[in-house]
């Protein structure tokens, strides 16, 4: 039984997609979306800096 059929079959390659031609409205929407993503990234980065609120769980001091 020395056939090449054993094992997993390789997936077929997908054809490369063609470059799309965008008009001005599409380009404006894409640019706006990129700016919103950038603003969200900056806000997330700022939100992760430093503690928010209290010091977390406090120990009572009892042993």
UniProtKB/TrEMBL annotation:
Stretches the record annotates as Disordered: 1-63
Database matches in InterPro entries: TMA7
Biased composition (Basic and acidic residues): 32-45
Domain of life: Eukaryota
Pfam families from the UniProt entry: TMA7
UniProt name for this protein: Translation machinery associated TMA7
